[in-house]
Amino acid sequence: MNKQDRKELEKAIKLIEDAMDILDWVRFGHQEKMNNIPEGLQGTDRYQEMEDAQYTMDSEWDNLESVRDNIQELI
Question: Does the chain have fewer CB atoms within 10 Å around its N or its C terminus?
């Protein structure tokens, strides 16, 4: 891999890390909203949708982290 390729991959890593930061901010806010839902409403369909969304965001954050790490290994 030449210097230019490594430079481009470093840009990709930066973009992935920016996406991770944004997703992390949204995940944190979403988790805070879930934490503030009264216990009596935690069994509702809406709450289940929120849990599903949280799980998806957590999973995708892990995927982004894996992609970033794999690219770093290439460099």
Answer: N
Please tell me the predicted confidence (pLDDT) of residue 46. 92
User: 21 phi and psi, to 5 degrees?
Assistant: -65, -45
State pTM to two decimals.
Answer: 0.85
How many other C-beta atoms lie within 10 A of the C-beta of residue 27? 18
The label of the residue with tokens 């930066």 reads 14
Tokens of 25: 């901010």
Spatial CB neighbours of 69, under 8 Å, sequence gap ≥ 6: none
Q: What tens digit of pLDDT does each residue of 16-70 get? A: 999 999 999 999 999 999 999 999 999 899 999 999 999 999 999 999 999 999 9
Any alpha helices (H) in 1-75, and if so which ranges?
A: 3-35, 45-74
Size (the chain), residues: 75
